[in-house]
Write a structure and sequence with these properties.
about 350 residues, 2 domains, 13 strands
Length: about 350
């Protein structure tokens, strides 16, 4: 059901990658991004500047920043930091962090797949954030961060990826955070067609990161079509996606801090949680370990620490609703603590 299309991106050159490739955008607060941008003028993060990175006394307007971002992109293209190949290709992208490895197929995916629900989403988006990202596409005109999609593991896709990644990669970069990034180009027509056929048989793909970027791409596509650019196979009808097998994805801890118990006592909260979870009070908080299996949570209230394990009968069949983030929201945060 998932359509993929080869494309002609601008790929950072091997000799410039260490300088140009940006760190994870969301890993830094605005002040940190501002400092990093100022210290690293050739880094691509300078093409993603936002108002919050500047003090109120010297803050440029949003439109001024967008023009600066566009100029930065053009400067990096002009100085040879990126290369665009003549032939269209699919790309294989691998991340290695310690012993963990995950490998994606990077391609263009039709916006229609998202709009018709063939690509499943699991969170709502903020209109103001959509507005900002849509305007970025209109002014700067580039998409540099692929949306992350998860798909059910496919032995046939795995086999072809293994074959491709046995070759010498186009890029091999170790970033400052000790994450190794490797990129392979897939130009063989037979391999491209095989991957397209294999992904067309994938039952569904799930949007795991990039809800706002995808929504913005949808809005940008609609605006281009409204201008009369609705014919042909223009790039605005597609969005950039990195598709990982779900079995390889690792979700890092994302802790929630709750301000109050919504009028409940600790005992009442624990009893409410117990309807869907096995609740274990840990006798030695100093030896508390982080959850290491799906459906397990650690809860701290004052000096008390509890381990929560979801009851099998409380786990829904829907693959999105059975995610830990969904279980936490739907079984604890919303019904017991009133957090929507």
């Amino acid at each position: 059901m998932t359509q993929i299309r080869p494309f002609r991106p601008y790929l950072v050159t091997a000799d410039r990658a260490a300088v140009v490739v940006a760190p994870a955008y969301d890993s830094m607060v605005p002040a940190e991004r501002a400092a990093f941008s100022n210290d690293n003028p050739s880094n691509y993060i300078n093409a993603m500047r936002v108002e919050e990175e500047f003090s109120k006394s010297d803050r440029p307007s949003a439109e001024t920043l967008l023009e600066r971002n566009r100029a930065t992109v053009q400067r990096l293209l002009d100085d040879g930091s990126f290369r665009q190949y003549e032939e269209e290709a699919l790309y294989i992208y691998r991340l290695q962090a310690g012993h963990h490895v995950q490998t994606a197929v990077v391609a263009e995916v039709p916006i229609e797949e998202y709009e018709t629900g063939r690509i499943r989403r699991h969170e709502h988006t903020r209109p103001d954030h959509e507005d900002r990202l849509t305007r970025y596409l209109e002014v700067v005109g580039v998409s540099s961060s692929p949306v992350c999609l998860a798909y059910p593991e496919s032995p046939s896709i795995n086999a072809l990826i293994s074959k491709i990644t046995s070759r010498v990669p186009e890029l091999d970069l170790l970033s400052d955070d000790e994450i190794r990034q490797l990129v392979w180009r897939v130009t063989d027509e037979g391999e491209i067609e095989t991957l397209q056929q294999q992904f067309s048989s994938v039952s569904a793909a799930y949007l795991t990161d990039g809800h706002h970027r995808t929504a913005a791409s949808s809005r940008y596509s609609a605006s281009q079509c409204a201008k009369g650019d609705d014919k042909g196979s223009g790039s605005w009808k597609y969005f950039l996606a990195a598709m990982f097998p779900a079995s390889e994805l690792r979700i890092l801890a994302f802790n929630r801090c709750v301000r109050d118990l919504n009028g409940l006592s600790v005992q009442s909260l624990v009893e409410g949680i117990g309807k869907h979870f096995v609740v274990e009070a840990l006798s030695d908080p100093e030896k508390t370990t982080l959850p290491c299996v799906p459906g397990e949570f650690t809860m701290l209230i004052g000096e008390f620490v509890y381990r929560l394990k979801v009851r099998p009968e409380s786990v829904p069949e829907d693959p999105v609703k059975k995610l830990d983030v969904s279980l936490l929201q739907n079984l604890i945060l919303e019904p017991l603590l009133g957090i929507t």
